[in-house]
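[Solved] Which block belongs to which protein?

Original post:
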Amino acid sequence: MKLLPVLAAAFAFPALLRAADLSPDTIKFNGLPPDRAAQEATLPPGFAMKLFAGEPDIVQPIAFCLDDRARLWVVESHTYPQRAKDGEGKDRILVFEDTDGDGHFDRRTVFIEGLNLVSGIEVGFGGVFVGAAPQLLFIPMQDGDAPKPAGEPRVLLDGWGYDDTHETLNTFAWGPDGWLYGCHGVFTKSKVGKPGTSEAERVKLDAGVWRYQPVRGEFEVFSEGTSNPWGIDFDARGQCIVEACVIPHLYHMIQGGRSERQAGPHANPYTYDDLKTIADHRHYLGDKGPHAGNGKSDAAGGGHAHAGLLIYQGESWPEPFRGKYFMNNIHGARINMDVPEQTGSGLVAHHGADFILFNDSWSQILNLLPDQDGSVFMIDWYDKNQCHRPQPEAHDQTNGRIFKVVYNGQKTTPVDLGKKTNDELAALAIGKNEWLSRHARRLLQERAQARPLALPALATAAREAAPHEALRALWALHATGGLTEPLILEALTAHPGRDDVSAWAIQLACERPPTAAVLARLAQLARDTASPVVRLYLASAAQRLPVEQRLPILEPLLTRAEDAKDINLPLMEWYALEPIVAKDSAAAALLLGKVKFPKVGEFIARRMAATAQ
């Protein structure tokens, strides 16, 4: 099939209309039966949307994940929008499997019932991680064709807020570094810690991306800000991207970054400015604010509210769709597509044409995930009501669907990665199939906890393979405890085309306190690297270092005049520099004469004045 004419139209988008030009949008259908909903959707040529499951087999699907056999683990949210009394929760987890590969489930298992206000799920490490504010739970699993719990749920972390029950911990995903990541909204206040942690030691969170290290049991805020993100994914370079609502819809979440917020101040009052959206457009029309554009923004993408985010990295869809960002537009009843482009240290996302029009105003896709063949699953909350409301009667709790989007009749390939050898998993971990790579890396991480793994092929790939494979080898080595200091130092040596390898070596090396040799190499990179991406990771990592170790890295970064207009670097360097200014006014005064960023110079002066008061 020739795709160029189709894609030429797909990546073009009309200019925004004036407020005076707005007229009500028309969506053809509402309240369709599950089979009919799949039939009435509009997709690009060659694509089809299939019904994988629908009510009454699934209702209120709020979160899902795929395990290493590509089975779907889906949360049915019967408790939302109000948390039940302890012991009275009605949420449950179902497991769906398509054993004959026809695109529709034929095995359905109830894994557990009686959960309360569940909003996130992920499988790994012999069980299921479940977000159920105020707790992050782990449920051990007895696997098999009909998996079941192997013990009572264990509380890993508590203190998660549920002030606003549609902004709780959500959309879990395994990161490239072996941590479990998730999102959190701005109007829910959390103070997270292990059970029994004192108030002073708890981690405060009210907007942003968090992560949990499953082996060490560590929790931290990865990146602050946005509004109510309900969708997260990592691109081929390991960059963390989330969607948001009300405020602009797309953000590059950088470790230690502070993105703009829908409401409330940043935790650090000396932030002074924050990172902005990476989108160069919006999905609503008019000049009266985001809510006013709902129902009147067909030409821009449907409206301001989004849920779910997928960066497509499968192999079955045509190449021009790969690497693009796909997110659901709730009021627009469609899947928006944004087109990313690297710029300086970061990204800018351009307006692509809508990927799917559901043509059904009740459509409520909450998340999208790929399968092992590159097809994509979507869970549909399906409700006439399009907004969060705290009254239970405002929500229709009898509906729910799971759809599968396939290209060119893609068949389903049986898979069971748990049966692979370590060497087979290592080969998959650095391969081109992103789904297999992610699952293989996590399985190796799990196995490494039982006994050390000898995986020389990964070390060789980290040193000698093409950048894409070398980066994945680096991630796998880190996850399995095989990323030695000589490998880190070698990766921290600049090589053409391997900027992402050096950048990630910085982040991974600073996950724990780095050695003197690594610190010296970081300072050398700060002086010598030509890569703004590497400089971004240096600025990010500097925040994790003791204040007295930061200046040898930050000082050469701050003298890079070419970075003055970069979308990330001046602010990220300021976030790392601010504690130095607060602690040592003499060093700050010397920096004022060297820094090449006017904005940072202004911030140094403001912070010095605040310290002097």
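(Second protein starts here: sequence line, then its structure tokens.)
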Amino acid sequence: MSYPSLKSKPGMLAWLLFLFALHLGANTTESWTVLVYIAGDNNLSEAAIQNINDMEAAALPANLTLVVQSDLPADSAYPGGQRRLIRADNSPQITSPLIQNLGPINSGDQRTLYDFATWGFKRYPSDRRALIIWGHGNNWFKDGSGKWICPDDGAQSQLSVSNGQLKGALTGLPQIDILILDACSMQSVEVLTELKNVADYIIGSEDEVPYTGFPYQHMMAFFDGILTPENVCSQIVDAYLESYDTHGSQNPQDYPLPVTCSAVRMQPFEAFLQELKRFSLKHRYRAPELLTLRAGCYEMNHGFCDVDIYEYFGKVNTNPANVLMQEDAGAVLAAWEAVVVHKGNLTHAADIGGAAIWFPWDWQYFEAFWTLYLKLDFSQYRWISTLYNAFPREDCVPLQPPALVSTNYSLGSVLAKLNLPPYPDDTTLEVSIEYDDVIRQHLYPLEWLQEQVSIRIPLKDDALIRIHRVSYKSPYSSSVEFEIEAPKAGLSIQSHPNPVRNRDTAMLRWYVPEDLAGAAKLELYNLKGQKLGSYDLGNVAEFEGSLPFASWSLLGKVPRGVYQIRLKIKGRNCKEKLTIL
């Protein structure tokens, strides 16, 4: 080979470009750290040992660091918590070097999982990160047999999805490229919603995972640093399905096992959830039709109450009875297809295998689990309201009354703070104010999932207050009631809140005695006493009145500082110091 002369500027440039190209070619392979968290202190302990041996028997890429933390029973050959750096070996024993012997640990504790992942990714930094959670699973709920998420029989503990423990165990870690859930029934929209900010891609099964788990001997080769994370996901899904086909690596039978597997990308997942929320809010009061369309869907998991997203909404999308519902289901499907990287199954219909969604076929299952379901992050997307309204009106959740926490006076009103028992659909507070001569009623809409509310009840005299909740489906709740004395207030004005941090939501409130009702205006002054502007309120009625900050443009323009607000009416005036932050 002849080399260009370094005395020639064009030749030197060409030579430098050649060396740069060689450097790029030599560094196109990315490094991977794959951590495997094995919660095997239960009846899966022998399968755990086999899977670790499978990892040792794999053709491990040079750029892959594979670390296992296992928790096995005390009578195991590998008892307690052990951390190992996996090295190639074909013997029936686990021979990979023991990095740490942790002794007895609780693999059903979220801190144990968090500590392992934090330690592993810090000790073995790399370009890419994957985490595998290995153990028993059961979607988001416990089925009554102790088989929850990562159960530890020795510690009598397990992780809860609905109580936020699985999410908590993975929150605060470095962003994970691929999360693999090697456990039964974990690929559901409910679980994915809990984990939507944890990883870029999530792999799992919406149905049961056989005892032998994922095919570790084959899938570790995909972490070669050449394949993109998305391609790694697709390869793992295919390898999983092939391993359970007839005479596959995980299946010695003469017939395929009924398994499902999918990989999903989390970046567009929020858009899917928003589309599902739009569908739920729009069609929840026609949900009995949706329950009818559920018939014939493949059912899985506890109580056979889960259906496949793609199969179910595919049926809604082809339902000729409701064209608008068809179109909206099509939008949900389109958003879901953007999420799915790759999916498949053995022995099922072609559209099974993506992810499950809870849709109990009988009221007893909804009634038993809805309070648990309401704790999930997924509940904010309102599918629970669709499920609730799918059942006949005689099947309903009793609407519990609010609980009175406290009452306080403000201007001519009473402020009532109330606790709100959970309920699976929207509710409204209906307040009756019973005076000696008349009854007045007010409605107070409540925010979804609101647990406590403070309401302002205007009073013109002493009264009996009755408050109950109303909803679309359930009968009125019983009421909470209390007698109240009307506050004795003169002409006054207040800012709520004060100081003001958000001018878009702030409010000016005033109280006008009966004898002063009439034409009124507001004036704003600085601390030097200079008038900055005024706002004509027109004729102001007796008792309480209000004006949003946003209605008076001056309040949106003045700089942060301390001011004085004055209310003038019939030659009288009142004032208050106003702080704007």
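Accepted answer:
You had them paired correctly. Confirming on the second one: Residues 492-580 form a domain with the Immunoglobulin-like fold (CATH 2.60.40.1930).
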